[in-house]
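note to self — DONT lose this again. spent like an hour looking for the file last time. sequence + predicted structure for the chain T wanted, 345 res
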Amino acid sequence: MIEMSMNFKRKLPIPKEIKEQYPLNAEMEKVKKARAEEIKAVFTGESDKFILIIGPCSADHKDPVLEYISRLRLVEDKVKDKIIIVPRIYTNKPRTTGEGYKGMLHQPDPETAPDMLKGIVSIRDLHLSALRDYGFTCADEMLYPENHRYLSDLLAYVAVGARSAENQQHRLTGSGIEEPVGMKNPTSGDLSVMMNSIKAGQASHTFLYRGWEVTSSGNPLTHAILRGYVDFAGKNVSNYHYEDLVTLNELYAKTSLVNPSVIVDTNHANSGKQYLEQIRIAKEVIHSRNHNDDIKCLVKGLMIESYIEDGACKAEEHIFGKSITDPCLGWEKTQKLIFDIADKL
């Protein structure tokens, strides 16, 4: 008999138990519902507002994330006639090789040992604080489909990453989510993979989820995220340009998919992880929208990596509001960019 090499440490509480311990109050539920309707209207084309999914590459500590979100609240109050801000609170961090900081779910303190129970409580507490104290429902990445329900009553937006978009469980779980689910193009850049992910997300399925046989109704708000890709030689290739958006619009036109939409990721392979390029990329996408009505209908928003301080650092450097994963735009540049985008819409 072959022994498993995994050490089963403890059984974690199920999502229902965590939600009962850390619930939403009536006012928070009201705000959540209103924001969900406002965001949905953008993806269905009933609203011409623009969505900005913006924030740190990965949430690391509660205090700087909430400080950043408090600043977003003041900015959104000035641009809310044109822009819906959805803060990024990404609590799971995919790692290409499995090494490095995996996010608050694993390590609520990046410098201590992983503790998944503390992590689950910490990420729910952070999302609750954003909603309760600042009126924001936020975006998170669905890195682990089975963990989605720990936050399912709090999220405004769910992203499925480039390495996950081909995965059956991500696709089928997305089909049972009420909020918009963005499927990123894979790291290979094959748009057919992304389109198949969207098709699967919009369809109804019966599948296994958390030990249950479940049936999903299909998510009509499943859509594309363009994030660039890496070619056969390991070179970053962008796919946010005018021609790329035209191509995506043509791909949608060949399908029966509803609510054709795309969010353009201004970082990752689109910027070659040169975080300052996000400013130029964002402005180019806005220009493309203003030049072509079809693209304007297609492009619903941008995804921008931003924090309090420019760039990135190591966790042990203890720089408040500076990313410990991918480099981010600092606050001054971020604020100016948001106002510039609003002026050009």
